[in-house]
Structures are given as structure tokens and as C-alpha cells.
Amino acid sequence: MDLIDIGANLGHESFDADLDAVLQRAVLAGVSQLVVTGASRAGSVRSLELAGAHPGLLWATAGVHPHHAVEYTDEADAEMRALVARPEVVAVGECGLDYHRDFSPRPAQRRAFERQLQIAADTGKPLFLHQRDAHADFMAMMKDFDGRLGPAVVHCFTGTREECFDALDAGYFIGITGWLCDERRGQHLREFVKDIPADRLMVETDAPYLLPRTVRPMPSHRRNEPMYLRHIVEELARDRGETFEATAAGTTTTARSFFRLAPRGR
Questions:
Q1: What is the rounded CA–CA span in Å between residue 46 and residue 42?
Q2: Using CA atoms, how far apart are residues 77 and 186, in angstroms rounded to an integer?
């Protein structure tokens, strides 16, 4: 098995004590490569450090999540540009808009997002995007950069069918997480994931968040880990009417091409 987890928050404090064991379990479960999400100034530095410590296995993104948009200063912009220039950093983000929680004022979110879109336009690196309850503004801001951006993935997609196909029509990729495995919140995704083209579909755990509710036995700590990626692939394959092997191969091929990852050992 050869799976790629395109979004794992391995810099989270919950992994501080046992990260090596977490990575070992992931590899034994068939996860051959992981992209470590950078979602703040400090978090992006940590993601790069982790990628540097585990070459070939871990890669990094660098960005500022909308929750942290108020920290996006001129100094932060310079930091992000320096990080994105590193070869271990394979995407700009996590960046975007989040009107669900509004942890940062919406004008600050839009300013931070626009500046990170400019970094992506200037460097040609892929975008790792976040959008929640902000679809219209998100799509409008992306449209302002039409023709100037490289590939873009809407990470941890939880929106409607219409929002999904707006993103696909614009040329973006879709990242599916354990939200799909949640019978309380993810049922609507099951109705249209089969219609997402295989060459636009990727999978991610978003660890330590979104532990798939299909995991048995359910761990008492509730921490999600990359080793549980196969549970997402299993559900996705079932909903798409494919074999596990077909969904695994398709999402891995797409991820490797999107992030320009050489297979481990090459």
C-alpha cells in the first residue's frame, strides 16, 4: 500500500511526546509520505523543522490560517516568503477564510489571504486552502488571481455539492478527511464524492483532529493519527463504488503530482 496524507498537523503539542512512534505506525499502515501543515507563523517554522528531520517522508506547507490572520504583518509576510522558498515546503498555506468561527476579524482574514495568494502567484507553488462558511468571498478572491496561480487544493472539504463543483469548475482539487466518516455531519459528502474526478481528489487525516468515527476499537484518547488514513480511503472507495486499491492508487498519484513529490528513496 502507498498512501499520502496531504494534511497532518504533526507540529501539534499532542505529538510532542511520541512523534517517532506516530510516524512508525503511519508507515506500517501504508502511509508512505505526509505533508505537515503550517497554519501559523510559529507552526510553519515547526513544519519545516519536522520535514527537515525526516527527509523523503515528511514535507511541509507554510502559511497563516484565517484564525491567526491578525498576526499577518509585513514581517510575517517576509517570513512566509523565506519559508516558501525552501525545497521542503511544497505549498503555500494553510490559508483562506473562516466565517464560521471568526476568530480573526473578516477584513484581517481577507488581507492575510490576499497576501498569501500573492506569494503563491509569485512563486508558482501550490496552494493549501481553507474555507468555511465563506464560499462567495473565497471564490471571488481566488478569481481575482485567475491565471496567476499554480494548482490549489481546498483542504478538508466539508461544504455542499454546489460549492464542491464551483471549486472543481475553477480547476481546484478537493481534500477529503474523516469528516466523511462522521454519520452526524458528513452524510451529505457521501452523496457526491463519487462525482469528483479521480485526478482532482486527495485524502488527508488533518491529525490530531477529525478522528474517523469508523475506527474500531475507538481509541480512548480520541487523537487522530496518520495511521488512520486508510479508514478514510475505505469509506471513500465504498462511496465511489471503487476498490480500496483503486482509490488508494488514484489519490496517491494525484497527490504526488500536485505537490511534485518524488517517491521515497528516489
A1: 6
A2: 35
pLDDT in tens, 106-150: 999 999 999 999 999 999 999 999 999 999 999 999 999 999 999
Q: Is the CB of residue 227 less than 8 Å from the CB of residue 21?
A: no
Residues linked to residue 34 through DSSP beta bridges, in sequence order: 5, 58
Interval 81-107: pLDDT, tens: 999 999 999 999 999 999 999 999 999
Rounded to whole angstroms, what are the CA distances from 166 to 130, 154, 157, 169, 254? 15, 11, 12, 5, 20
Per-residue pLDDT tens over the stretch 209-219: 999 999 998 88
Residue 105: Cβ-neighbour burial (10 angstroms; 0-12, 13-18, 19+): exposed
User: 69 to each of 14, 72, 78, 103, 109, how far by Cα in Å?
Assistant: 23, 5, 15, 9, 5
Mean of the per-residue pLDDT values of the chain: 97
Q: Which of 1.20.1250.20, 1.10.260.40, 3.40.50.300, 3.20.20.140 would CATH assign to domain 3-259?
A: 3.20.20.140
Residue ranges of domains in the chain: 3-259
Could you identify the residue written with the cell 464524492?
193
Joined together, the cell numbers standing for residue 56 give: 523523503
